[in-house]
Amino acid sequence: MPRTVTLVRHHVADFDAWKKEYDTATPLQQANGLRVHQVLRSAEDPNDVVVSHTFDSSEAAHEFMAKPEIKEAMNRAGVKADSVKTTYYSEVDTEKLAIS
Q1: Which of 43, 45, 25, 42 is closest to 34 using CA atoms?
Q2: Using N-to-C axis directions, what is the helix angle for 68-76 and 15-23, rounded to 10°?
Q3: Which of 1, 35, 47, 62 has the fewest Cβ atoms surrounding its Cβ within 10 A?
Q4: Residues paired with residue 48 on neighbouring β-strands, in sequence order
Q5: What is the pTM of this model?
Q6: For the domain that residue 13 is a member of, what is the CATH number?
Q7: Nearest-CA neighbor of 3 among 61, 52, 51, 50?
Q8: In the chain, which ranges are continuous DSSP H helix?
Q9: Is residue 79 domain-resident?
Q10: In a domain, 65, yes or no
């Protein structure tokens, strides 16, 4: 079964405050099957954030994103609720390239 990657794009009031709150969620992420995550910040707007989360299944990804604790953490972190866009993707290929 392919892994599922969620991409969550949102606008935050203050990136540094958001990141501090995001980092406190590590235990919640680990307890709910998060395998890999990546935080991306727009070069043009430092408060435009994209987060990718990789899970073993679509069910795990959807269950995690539906948790009330996630919405509460986003509120505490200053996420502008009307800016949140979450998309789900099935992983097709992942490769680490050797750098010579």
Answers
A1: 25
A2: 140
A3: 1
A4: 11
A5: 0.87
A6: 3.30.70.100
A7: 61
A8: 15-23, 26-31, 58-66, 68-76
A9: yes
A10: yes
